[in-house]
Design brief:
Layout: E1 8-11, E2 14-17, H1 28-32, E3 36-37, E4 40-45, E5 48-51, H2 54-67, H3 76-89, E6 95-103, E7 115-122, E8 133-141, H4 158-170, E9 175-179, E10 185-187, E11 192-197, E12 200-203, H5 213-225, E13 228-231, H6 236-240, E14 244-249, E15 253-260, E16 263-264, H7 273-286
Parallel strand pairs: 8-9, 8-15, 12-13
Antiparallel strand pairs: 1-2, 1-7, 3-6, 4-5, 4-6, 6-7, 9-10, 11-12, 11-14, 14-15, 15-16
Helix pairs in contact: 2-3
The structure holds 4'-deoxy-4'-aminopyridoxal-5'-phosphate (PMP).
Residues 39, 187, 190-192, 210, 212-215, 248-250 line the site of 4'-deoxy-4'-aminopyridoxal-5'-phosphate.
Length: 296
């Protein structure tokens, strides 16, 4: 599903077939969840294939690597160039790109000098699908920001996400919504969360969440469209009485939500600001306007 006989990936400066690439089993990332990564999308546009907000994604990869003290010697500009070549070599246009920076052989708990860079891509539909989502408040909280760098995209953080999504699916829901350690709504396992009440949008402030690039794009679109967004703390109870809600993420894009813990939102999705923003987002990622976000 992620690769075929012919798929080519970029590994430590070389183009290699995915089926021939390998990794030491004594890798620090495999044993302890220590690696940093990104999730990026490219879109087929009237101006050819364009990677949405490539600079923001690779800047965040640098931020994550620096926080975890994993060396990353490629610049953002080089990484963008490699990404376009990766798409071209695999004949991909609407695609999902996955850069991963991981340490080498190291069974200790100390950051090492060695690191590796992997860049691969595949075709991936919208991560949470196209149907409205039924969420449950997770019994798992987001990681304590004093236990890790929550704004870094570290592989190990995703054990928390896997627990939350698995729990939600096993209980018959589509996805989880996680709280912070004080009981405020934080975010989804792989997406930021917004809800709407009386034509105002609310989303959690930074502190316990990943600073999503799609979340930022929603702020930009909302401003252009004259919608008010408030970054403030709120509880699941506030969400129960919402008019609408949605997740935002590169893989999920803008995904409409139907209910939280069985409490259905007041408006049909098509009548919400979220619906309008989801359409504006689709236009933004496929149109010229976002050339601004391309190579610096
Ligand atoms: N929160 C989490 C935990 C995520 O994994 C993601 C996906 N990267 C997001 C939010 C959304 O981030 P972005 O919009 O940058 O993809």
């Amino acid at each position: 599903m992620y690769y075929t006989e012919n798929t080519i990936l970029y590994l430590d400066g070389k183009w290699v077939k995915a089926k021939d690439a390998s990794l030491t089993l004594y890798n620090q990332s495999l044993h302890y969840g220590n690696a940093v990564f990104e999730g990026i999308r490219s879109y087929s546009t009237e101006d050819g294939t364009l990677i949405f907000k490539a600079k923001a994604h690779f800047d965040r990869l640098h931020y994550s690597a620096q926080k975890m003290q994993i060396p990353l010697s490629w610049s953002t500009e080089e990484l963008i160039r490699i990404s376009y070549e990766l798409l071209e070599r695999n004949n991909l246009s609407d695609a999902y790109l996955r850069p991963l920076v991981y340490p080498g052989e190291n069974m200790s708990l100390v950051a090492g000098e060695e690191s590796h860079l992997l860049l691969c891509a595949w075709e991936w539909g919208r991560y949470l699908g196209d149907s409205l989502l039924r969420l449950m408040t997770s019994s798992f909280q987001r990681p304590n920001p004093k236990a890790c760098f929550v704004e870094a995209k570290v592989t190990g953080h995703y054990t928390n996400s896997i627990l939350a999504t698995t729990e939600a699916k096993q209980k018959g829901y589509d996805e989880a919504l996680l709280l912070d350690m004080y009981g405020n709504v934080a975010e989804g396992p792989g997406a930021n969360f917004f809800y709407e009440k009386n034509e105002v949008l609310y989303t959690a402030p930074l502190g316990n969440i990943l600073s999503g690039i799609t979340r930022q794009t929603i702020f930009e679109l909302a401003e252009e469209m004259g919608f008010e967004v408030r970054e403030q703390l709120f509880s699941p109870r506030d969400v129960y009485d919402a008019d609408g809600a949605f997740f935002t993420g590169t893989a999920a894009e803008v995904a409409g939500i139907q209910s939280l813990d069985g409490n259905k939102f007041n408006l049909p999705w098509e009548d919400t600001l979220g619906f309008e923003l989801s359409r504006a987002y689709n236009n933004r990622v496929q149109k010229k306007e976002y050339k601004n976000f391309e190579l610096v």
